[in-house]
Design a protein that fits this description.
The protein has helices at residues 34-41, 56-59, 62-69, 81-84, 96-111, 179-192; strands spanning 3-9, 12-19, 22-26, 45-50, 73-75, 121-122, 136-140, 149-153, 157-159, 164-166, 170-172. By secondary structure, the protein is an alpha/beta fold. It has a single domain, classed as Metallo-beta-lactamase, Chain A (4-Layer Sandwich). It is globular and about 45 Å long. The structure holds zinc ion. Zinc ion is lined by residues 53, 55, 144, 162.
Length: 194
Amino acid sequence: MSTVQRIKCGLVNCYIVSDGDSAILIDTGKKDNLDTVVEACKPYKIKLIVLTHAHCDHAENAADLSEILGAPIAMHKDDVNLIESNNNQSLSARVFLGKIILSASLKEFSRSKMKAFTPSVFLKDGDDLTEYGIAAKVIGLPGHTKGSIGIDVGGKELIVGDALMNMFYPTVAMLYNDEKVMKDSAKKITGLGE
Ligand SMILES: [Zn+2]
């Protein structure tokens, strides 16, 4: 049985999914959170760093953590162009709150200089992570970004990155690269609980 531990990193969360000593780290937070994440990972042998998507608030520490923890980086290939710049995939919002968050996010993206890295594992819908010592699989959740993925932990817990958001209230992603695709992914998540 794999367990999920949340590491709070400001507005985003990172997660450690572990089974005994073996663990994967999901998302990496912003630079300010590097020490917190390293500390949380200490009790484990981190076998893989998974990015739910490559926006800087989730991926900024990927290069450093890969080196510190000695773990490869895994993500969906459709987000690779975001490593260079988070402006490489357009982002839109419709609702009022979404527009406010969008403008703040775009400012943050333009300030962020993410340290370049090359993912060594590409994940897609249906991939199984048992070879990394935990019972989990990958769910494709495109829409927020083209390569957004979620991690289904033993059919009990689902880590969705920004495919769903919970800033002031839980909602589908308020920012999206493709609204229709994003909504289909949100429906897919709802269907998983049935
Ligand atoms: Zn995002």
